[in-house]
Structures are given as structure tokens and as C-alpha cells.
Amino acid sequence: MRASLRGHLARAVRGGRVSTLLRAGARAAFARFDRSLPGPLGGPLLATFAVTYRCPLRCAMCDLPARAGDELPDAELPRWIDAIAALRPAGLGFTGGEPLARRATLPALERSVGHGLVTHLNTSGVPVDDRTADRLAAVGLASINVSIDHASPAAHDATRGRDGAFDAALDAVRRLAAARAARGASFRLHVVQAVDRDSLESVAALERTVRAAGADALSLLPVHTFPATPPTAPWPVRPELPSALRDVPLENSRAYLRGIAPFLAGARTPGACSAPRTGLFVDPRGRVFACTPAATTRGAGLAATPETLAAVVRSGRLGETVPEGRCDRCWWNCHRELDVAIGRRPKAASAGARDLLSSRAR
User: Fold this and answer.
1) Which domain holds residue 38?
2) Given CA atoms 7, 8, 11, 12 in this order, what sign does their dihedral have?
3) 178-234: per-residue pLDDT in tens?
């Protein structure tokens, strides 16, 4: 199990949230053993709210800023958070775009925490100045992720399309760590590295850098491109954990890490993801999806309002929002890690993929 999930469970136990643990356990059990269910039983385990697609960066792997436009009005965000909270997910993550590009995000985070939800924030770090870090530390968040993709500042800046992006992200880690200490806050502070075949070897160096800046851990997410095609030539790496990662203390589970190299080499993952039964993603316009990849890869969302959200989620139609053929080319961390945690362990690579991967690895 990934370290953050263990931490959230421990925090729930310490906080006496027994009912939350029992409810999450029951939903996880049904998601594991009854794959015939058309939709989530009672509600999702993991909810994500992309409050904006606006972003100060222009990342090579992302077209969300180009899709920024109409957004839910600020006044409607509390109603949406109330509606999500009524579904009683174990946690609610805020993402974008860059969620801190929107002023209404901080009050939205506070409202989520007020509902007792395990509340998480993803950020590029670029908007995090001292005042923002202090406000975030005061909210009561469970975790914050800052994105850094390379140990080399120049390489990170090139990937993220902005000079100084690396320094801004690392400064954000330092500011958040300092604000956490000053406030006596307890949120977990992670750096997420979007890795590709070229950057895997930089993992160890980046892990040392971000820990020195105050991060608790480094977490990996392989770069996804949709539609995706296997590499034109076999990648000379076996399907076990790459040597560059074996001795690095990462936040991911070992089962998830073992799947990264095969995924990047073109191996197809099985379409057994539990996201249609365990996930919920709400985009900036109020459309509903089963998972983050479905929304960010131009899947067809379902129309919803705060008043109809529960009915839409329980309709069994969330699976329709995932573009056909996408699940077997997905190794998205939050969803696949959840599968690992509840015992639905997707195979890292098929027999054919193992042959492909090992044919030139000597």
C-alpha cells in the first residue's frame, strides 16, 4: 500500500473516525469482489474536483490550459462541495489546471475540510508565496502535492514551458514545509514526478533534492499520452522494478512501481480498473466523469448539477465516460494505487509485453 494511504488510515484512527473507516472498507470490499455492480455502492471512495483548467504553465504533456474557458461561478462551488460531501467519499482532491490560479479555491478547501473529508491539493507550486503557504497550512489539509519532473532545472523548465518553473516549485516545497512547522500542521507534503523513459534515471537525484527542501516523499506518475501507441522499438528494460528505483524511498507502493517501466515500454494494462465504482471526477464546468484520465483525455462527461449529482453517480453510467480502449493504456497513480490497496492488483504486463521487454535486455 502506498505510504499516503497508510498515513490517512492512521490519521482516521487517531481522530476516532470509525464510521468513515467502516464505510470506506465496505465500499472497497464491494469494489473488489463484485465487479458486476453497474456503479458505486453508496458513493465513491475517491472524489476529485478540477476547479479550473487555467494554469501559468504550458506543459508538454498537457493541453488543459488550451481548454480553459467557462467555469462554474464562484458562488456555486460551495454547493458542489456540499453535494460531493453528501456522497461521503473517503477523500476529496482538488486539482486543475492550477487550482491556486482561482481565488475561490482556498475557501473551497476550507469547506471540504469542514465536512470532515480527507482533503488533498495538487499544485505546480508556481503560485505558492509565503502568504499562500501559510493559509494552506492553516486549512487542515491532509496532503499537498507539488509537481517537479526532473532533477535538472533546465529540463523541468523545458517540460513545463516556463523559465524558472523548477525554482518556483522547489521554493514552494520549502515555503510549505516552513509554514507547516510554524503552524504545527500535519499535512503530508509530497513531490510528484511525471516520469518518462528519459527521466527515470533522475529519480534518485530528485528524491534527495526534494527531501532536502522539506518534502516527506517523492511520488511517481508515468507520463500518459492518449491515444497512445507502443514504442517503435523494444525498450531494453525488464518488467521488474528498474534498478534506478529499487533503493529509492518513494511514496508509491512497490506493486505500482513495478508497473511503470512496462507501461512506458508499451505494455498494455488490463481494463479491470475499479474507477467506475470507486471514483468521481468533476470538471470546471460541472461535468462528471469516472476518473481523472477520462476527463483529461477528452472523454464525454455526464451533465450534472449539485442537486442531481448523487443520482448521476449512482446511475451506473460513469463507465460510459471513459473513452473506449483507454483503460488498457492507463497507469494513473491514484486509481491504480487504489486497485492495489483494495486487492484488485492489475498485472503489470501481459506475456507478450514481457517478451517484448526482455527480448533485448541482457
Assistant:
1) 3-358
2) negative
3) 999 999 999 999 999 999 888 888 899 999 999 999 999 999 999 987 555 555 555
Per the structure, the count of domains in the chain is: 1
pLDDT in tens, 221-263: 999 875 555 555 556 555 455 666 777 889 998 888 888 888 8
Cβ neighbours of 75 (radius 10 Å): 8
pTM given for the model: 0.85
Query: Distance between CA atoms of 303 and 124, rounded to whole angstroms?
Result: 29
- Separation CA 290–CA 183 (nearest Å): 36
Domain of 167, CATH number, reads: 3.20.20.70
Q: What is the DSSP string of 252-278?
A: S-HHHHHTHHHHHTTPPPPS---HHHH
Q: How far apart are CA 217 and CA 266, in angstroms?
A: 27
Task: Provide the pairing of β-strand 287-289 with 302-303.
Answer: antiparallel
Continuous H helices in the chain: 3-14, 18-33, 77-86, 105-114, 130-139, 153-160, 165-183, 203-213, 243-246, 254-258, 260-264, 275-278, 292-296, 309-313, 333-341, 351-358
DSSP state of 224: -
C-alpha to C-alpha distances, 237 to 149, 242, 324, nearest whole angstrom: 21, 7, 29
C-alpha cell at 258: 513495478
Choose among 281, 314, 315, 311: nearest CA to 299: 281
Asked if residues 47 and 91 have their Cβ atoms less than 8 Å apart, the reply is yes
The residues, any chain, with a CB within 8 Å of residue 320's CB and separated by 6 or more, are 300, 302
